[in-house]
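User: Could you go from structure to sequence for me? I need the amino acid at each position, not a summary. Structure tokens:
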């Protein structure tokens, strides 16, 4: 009785049910390509502003670029105005993708202040209109990624989930914390189970999966159709392949195969090469450092070298430091 399965999201059938989370500032094309290499059934772009897309801002449109190697992938939109979301969704139709995801979970002040992100949970009617506008405009199936509600006193996840389904969404992704709690406390997986029982469409559970065993537990406890891994995959794409193995083997337990030091360094080098190729050296190096730092986590006796990663200015320098750690 394996827990590993394909997921039907509208007209998209994923190869498996282990998804890589959208991560702004992290989840660019390089990160997603690596996620796919390790088997992720679905990846997501960093959240892209509907306003930015509607205004054809080059930087925002850049976020929509998905290549064959990171597909199947969803474009994630954030916004608060149904008309602008509709326009943005129709512009997204020009970009190869497999899914359109609506961000109803971002708790960053700058985003919530504009009425977007998790703020859209505060007005179920408006939320319905946003989802409906995207469903009507998009050639892709639409998913929504939400939290429990704005705050402890206003948890309305079941109402919101129902509105999403009624508006024609094809999957619900739940990170079961409130917007106010940001990332504190524990993700309340019991709500994933409640949402699953109340919906016909597939439900993807997210939040605090740190090991493959956590993913098995989440699926067993909640009955969710898919799991989504975010922070734990940064510098550690092995969690994806190990989770796939753990779900496939259930109820047998399998040993988690940890990468060797050289495997980590090789993957870091690949990542570095890709980021620099896609973004150029100056921006690429600036952005890839946070990844390199995470790839090197857990390698004994290198804490000094690891911290010095943040001083690197060129790709050559980064490569030399990584090479020196090998063997
Ligand atoms: C650095 C960072 C960036 C994130 N960016 C996004 C985003 O662009 N869109 C989104 O829906 N969620 C975003 N999230 C939330 C994650 O997708 C995920 O819901 C959350 O981290 C919980 O899952 P985890 O415990 O597996 O990390 C972000 C989280 C982090 C830590």
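Assistant: Here is the amino acid at each position, in order:
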């Amino acid at each position: 009785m394996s827990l590993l399965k394909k997921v039907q999201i509208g007209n998209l059938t994923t190869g498996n049910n282990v998804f890589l989370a959208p991560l702004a500032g992290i989840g660019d094309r390089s990160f997603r390509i690596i996620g796919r290499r390790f088997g992720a059934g679905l990846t997501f772009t960093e959240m892209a502003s509907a306003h930015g897309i509607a205004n054809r801002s080059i930087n925002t449109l850049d976020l929509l670029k998905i290549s064959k190697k990171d597909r199947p992938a969803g474009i994630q939109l954030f916004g608060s105005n149904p008309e602008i979301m509709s326009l943005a969704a129709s512009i997204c139709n020009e970009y190869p993708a497999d899914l359109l995801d609506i961000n109803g979970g971002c708790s960053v002040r700058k985003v919530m202040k504009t009425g977007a992100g998790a703020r859209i949970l505060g007005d179920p009617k408006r939320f319905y209109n946003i989802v409906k506008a995207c469903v009507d405009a998009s050639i892709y199936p639409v998913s929504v990624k939400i939290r429990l509600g704005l705050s402890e006193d206003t948890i309305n996840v079941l109402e919101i989930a129902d509105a999403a389904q009624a508006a024609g969404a094809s999957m619900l992704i739940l990170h079961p914390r409130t917007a106010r709690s940001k990332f504190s406390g524990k993700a309340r997986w019991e709500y994933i189970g409640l949402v699953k029982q109340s919906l016909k469409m597939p439900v993807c559970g997210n939040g605090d999966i740190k090991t493959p065993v956590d993913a098995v537990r989440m699926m067993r406890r909640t009955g969710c159709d898919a799991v989504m891994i975010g922070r734990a995959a940064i510098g550690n794409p092995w969690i994806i392949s190990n989770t796939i193995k753990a779900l496939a083997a259930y109820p047998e337990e399998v040993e988690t195969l940890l990468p060797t030091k050289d495997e980590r360094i090789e993957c870091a080098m690949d990542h570095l090469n890709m980021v620099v190729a896609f973004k150029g050296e100056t921006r690429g190096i600036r952005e890839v450092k946070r990844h390199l730092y995470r790839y090197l986590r857990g390698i004994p006796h290198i804490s000094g070298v690891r911290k010095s990663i943040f001083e690197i200015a060129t790709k050559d320098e980064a490569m030399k430091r990584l090479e020196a750690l090998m063997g």
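One structural detail worth keeping in mind: The chain has two domains: 8-249, 261-325.
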